[in-house]
Amino acid sequence: MQDIDVIVIGSGIGGLVTATQLAAKGAKVLVLERYLIPGGSAGYFERQGYRFDVGASMIFGLGHNGTTNLLTRALDAVNVSQQTIVDPVQIHYHLPQGLDLKVDRVYEKFLQNLAAYFRHEEPGIRRFYDECWKVFNCLNSMDLLSLEEPRYLMRVFFQHPLACLGLAKYLPQNVGDVAQRYIKDPQLLKFIDMECYCWSVVPANMTPMINAGMVFSDRHYGGVNYPKGGVGQIAQKLVEGLEKVGGKIQYQARVTKILTEQGKAVGVQLANGKVYRGKRIVSNATRWDTFEQLLPAEEIPYNEKKWQQNYQKSPSFLSLHIGVKAEVLPRGTECHHILLEDWEKMAAVEGTIFVSIPTLLDPDLAPAGYHIIHAFTPHWIDDWQGLSLGEYEAKKEEAAWRIIDRLEKIFPGLDAGLDYLEVGTPRTHRRFLGREDGTYGPIPRRKLRGLLGMPFNRTAVPGLYCVGDSTFPGQGLNAVAFSGFACAHRIAVDLGL
Ligand SMILES: Cc1cc2nc3c(=O)[nH]c(=O)nc-3n(C[C@H](O)[C@H](O)[C@H](O)COP(=O)(O)OP(=O)(O)OC[C@H]3O[C@@H](n4cnc5c(N)ncnc54)[C@H](O)[C@@H]3O)c2cc1C
């Protein structure tokens, strides 16, 4: 490929949305992916007739209305589409003190389910979740593009002044502060913590209100929709679209260096020594990998240092990819579950267990008569370092059985019905996803002012942009798609496209 306009390092959803958006605008785009397939944390792998999602299974952004359905919009932009399956319940919570609750797709039904446990807080519950809708309605009334582009900001402000003022008001706020305005019951506040923790991996007082407004409302608006064929299909389709509009992708192309000249990013070097030059370089690797591995760690820019003082790497996960006989799951079992027995352990290692059973929505992902259960729980990489192979395998097995024992409470007979089990550790996440310490992404080190501290796409290195979950607005497929739209928008303006 000659005269490359934009080189994208990595084909996670953030990288692919950037690449497709730019290629659709006529830029010459090359994506370099270190692994064999695209998708990163939204990829898949196949074993013995099962197609497992690597990470994400609860997918927002595949709806049909409004402006926040960013995955649908990204696919549309390159003339590809993805069949989806409606998920009627976002999460079935199994929480301490017998709090057993389903988050129904229908907003009123969810409020009723929750209020049935907290009658005395019914008005507060409604006022809190209604306030989240205010954030969502602001976001959902405008095109979500680069907040680093002044002309766009002016245009949206004149078109939607009230929505913009609304968002400006919520930008520095966290969920905990808003929740405490309306709710006093400590157990209900713990529930709100869990509502945040299950995607932000921090409690409500550290979770930005903007992100919560999206998640707590969109689940009842565009809803949670599972892509037919597995989550890996989204990335596969984006690549199909990228190639349709003239973009290119290379696999097994691990970038080891971002090349700079007079301080400006001008190209990349691969592990095999090959060099590519481009007018703009986009890194879909995490900011830690970008500024400490791909650029000299001793030259880390001041604002990146500052960001690292405010944000740290979240833990990674221990993941169990399980194949199980279908009869283990009773009729009416929901796709996504959260299990926690002790509120004090919500954020502890092996505290909260996240479960997805995508075959309840798409049975073709497993052999007939079997289901997939993906269970994962936070773990730090430090606990998995320095082990011999034997010790590592033994530790994995012990941890897996601890999780299976706990899951037996919600899925009795799980152990007896096991057909397949593969265990991934933080080391697996680091190795296959190329993410430092296998981290899920950045989390605030302490209570910050909402989303104000999250960096956008431009970096201190001219010509170099970051995209993905360590840029605004953070983790999750729809969030990194937002980051991709914003990154492509900023670059398109910079290149005069
Ligand atoms: C266990 C788990 C469960 C999750 N569940 C959900 C969920 O239910 N819903 C949801 O919305 N989100 C979920 N997430 C989060 C979501 O998957 C991520 O936030 C999102 O996929 C991150 O996308 P990204 O584009 O930032 O980067 P990544 O997915 O990390 O992709 C980066 C890509 O860059 C490549 N790369 C990195 N370095 C290099 C290099 N040097 N050279 C070339 N290529 C490189 C990697 O191989 C990878 O393909 C989950 C994540 C995990 C781990």
UniProtKB/TrEMBL annotation:
Belongs to the carotenoid/retinoid oxidoreductase family. CrtISO subfamily. One of its GO terms (cellular component) is membrane. This is prolycopene isomerase. InterPro entries: Amino_oxidase, CrtISO, CrtISO-like, FAD/NAD-bd_sf. Pathway: Carotenoid biosynthesis; lycopene biosynthesis. It comes from Komarekiella delphini-convector SJRDD-AB1. It comes from the Bacteria. GO terms for biological process: carotenoid biosynthetic process. Residues 13-491 form the Amine oxidase domain. It is a peripheral membrane protein. Keywords: Carotenoid biosynthesis, FAD, Flavoprotein, Isomerase, Membrane, NAD, NADP, Transit peptide. Its EC number is 5.2.1.13. One of its GO terms (molecular function) is carotenoid isomerase activity. PANTHER family: PROLYCOPENE ISOMERASE, CHLOROPLASTIC, PTHR46313. Its cofactor is NADP(+); NAD(+); FAD. It is found in: Membrane. It catalyses: 7,7',9,9'-tetra-cis-lycopene = all-trans-lycopene.
